[in-house]
C-alpha cells in the first residue's frame, strides 16, 4: 500500500504542473517522469565532468598490475 504525501506548492507552480501534464496522467506520474529526466541530465553532466577532468596525478592501471 502506498502512502500519500502532500507537497505544498505555490499557485503558479501548480498551474505550470497542470499545463505540463498529459491527458490522463497523474501528478505522481508527471513528477516521476521529471525526476527521471533530472537524474539522466545529472548523469550526463557527471560523465562530461569525468571526461574533462585533469588526468594529472593518475597512474594507468596497467602500470599498477
Short summary:
The protein is mainly alpha-helical.
Structural key phrases:
65 residues, mainly alpha, 3 helices, 60% helix, elongated
Layout: helices, strands, pairs:
Elements lengths: L10 H10 L6 H25 L9 H4 L1
Report on the structure:
By secondary structure, the chain is mainly α. It is 60% helix and 0% strand. The chain has helices at residues 11-20, 27-51, 61-64. The longest helix is centred in the middle third of the chain and has 25 residues, at 27-51. The protein is elongated, with a radius of gyration of 21 Å.
Which structural category do the helix and sheet elements fall into?
mainly alpha
The major pleated sheet works out as: none
Rg is 21 Å
**Helix-strand sequence:** HHH
The percentage of residues in β strands lies in under 5%
DSSP summary: helix tally = 3
Provide the low-confidence segments as ranges.
none
- How many E-type strands? 0
Ends apart, CA distance between termini: 51 Å
Instruction: Give average pLDDT, whole number.
Output: 92
Helical coverage, percent range = 55-70%
Which shape, going by the Cα principal axes?
A: elongated
Amino acid at each position: 500500500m502506498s502512502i500519500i504525501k502532500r507537497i505544498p506548492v505555490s499557485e503558479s507552480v501548480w498551474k505550470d504542473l497542470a499545463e505540463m501534464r498529459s491527458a490522463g496522467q497523474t501528478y505522481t506520474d508527471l513528477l516521476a517522469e521529471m525526476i527521471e529526466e533530472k537524474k539522466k541530465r545529472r548523469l550526463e553532466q557527471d560523465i562530461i565532468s569525468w571526461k574533462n577532468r585533469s588526468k594529472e596525478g593518475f597512474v594507468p592501471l596497467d602500470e599498477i598490475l
